[in-house]
């Protein structure tokens, strides 16, 4: 009797009803509504007429969008490898449970809980000309000061430094979790063979966490593609848009210039990119772990 | 569990002395900007105007922190942040627990299909919906309200996903015994299952709180009136014209003040946060 009760009872759906309402109203509907908006000429004064893919072609022909796209790719290409390499290094260095290592783990993760506003404030106070920490140090050393936040090339770099500082905790923690999963007998075999530490790292440790390295890389690509607050608050996209990322372009198009249709089109393009990455992430995470080969 | 294993480990590259020293060095680099911020916050603004290298010299003062106490604005923002973060956390916990329980342990028509659709929601980034959301909230006059600030976060599929995992882990025998006693599904959920998920509730709750507290884009476009700013947006707004107005010292103190709640939460609940963050990202 209990079994039949458990199996199939439409009334049980009441449990998911509250969330499902939130899901439909606040996520599913806005998603379709955004797509609808992206196919229409819309402005502040309300929904207009159907224009097909015009908004998309307008976005793709917009030099500002193309620049933002290039900036974002450059940013991802620089920040993600840095995050993965540093995260992996810290995980390897702190892969042992002692007081010291857990203190350092806590410390390296602590910046992740701060808001983007605080992170950018901290780093602006490091980079600002004359008063910042770096200019002060440069002056002490007698070096020529660089205006990091308003020199093209350097501004995106400064945003990247703040981002790596902010986001480093997650890759480190994910790598640590993966390192703990490596079966100890693999290391015992290596010890019998008198393998050098370097060889153990290359032959055992890294292959065992290859899947996690892939996953962390994709997670970071997805996250860094959504760069917004750091760039907006530190450089406001400048100078000349050289540090304006895609999300900031969407923000400016949709909420500053109120070109809603065009902004929606740009946001759907970004969604498409992120969706592809998320699918790769899903495929990798459902594949069997290759630890026990 | 791996604690015992690690004692058997040979001297691999991992956690060796030199690596630890490099990590220690990196931690100094990591903390230098924070130390700089704290240093600025305990200096007199007038002294900082003459040159910020005075941070390395006495005297220090708490005057900037005292000024925060006198600034009703920062406290108003703090209050807004609290209401929004706590409200959103409660909402997420209620919705996710109910839904997670049903997805994990009950049968109803279309259960699997709905679950897959909800999981798809995990892949939808905020940017893809934010313009439409902004319009919708405009229709209902929800902008510049606490409710309007806390609602969007409640649609996050992450909590449902996490709670489904936790409810799945509870042995089946527990509720089967209760069913034989003719307890209703609601009673089983409320009296038996929910207490068992308290650790999970803590994990999800802390995670949601931090997320709501740190949220940037939605409050930026939804709370346009100064008195409705959250602390995150308030600090951002005083940051954009910081050169002229309040001075580096005051802004630094404000930043320290704004990060204290999350840092306190972090120090006390570090384990939960790490579980939530890493569990959610991999599984």
From TrEMBL, chain B:
Q: Where is the ABC transmembrane type-1 domain?
A: 78-269
Entry keywords, A to Z = Cell inner membrane, Cell membrane, Membrane, Transmembrane, Transmembrane helix, Transport
Q: Does the keyword Cell inner membrane apply?
A: yes
Output the GO biological process annotations, alphabetical, semicolon-separated. Answer: transmembrane transport
SUPFAM superfamilies hit by this protein: MetI-like
Q: How does it sit in the membrane?
A: Multi-pass membrane protein
Q: Which InterPro entries match?
A: MetI-like (IPR000515), MetI-like_sf (IPR035906)
Localization: Cell inner membrane; Cell membrane
Q: Cellular component terms, GO, for this chain's entry?
A: plasma membrane
Main location per the UniProt record: membrane
Coiled-coil annotation reads none
Tell me where the transmembrane regions lie.
Answer: 20-42, 77-102, 114-134, 146-167, 188-210, 248-269
Gene3D superfamilies named among the record's database cross-references: MetI-like
Which PANTHER family does the protein's record reference?
Answer: ABC TRANSPORTER PERMEASE PROTEIN MG189-RELATED-RELATED, SN-GLYCEROL-3-PHOSPHATE TRANSPORT SYSTEM PERMEASE PROTEIN UGPE
User: What function is annotated for this protein?
Assistant: Part of the ABC transporter complex UgpBAEC involved in sn-glycerol-3-phosphate (G3P) import. Probably responsible for the translocation of the substrate across the membrane.
Quaternary arrangement and interactors, per the entry?
A: The complex is composed of two ATP-binding proteins (UgpC), two transmembrane proteins (UgpA and UgpE) and a solute-binding protein (UgpB).
Recorded family membership: Belongs to the binding-protein-dependent transport system permease family.
Name the record gives this protein = sn-glycerol-3-phosphate transport system permease protein UgpE
Q: Origin organism of this chain?
A: Paramesorhizobium deserti
Upper classification of the source organism reads: Bacteria, Pseudomonadati, Pseudomonadota, Alphaproteobacteria, Hyphomicrobiales
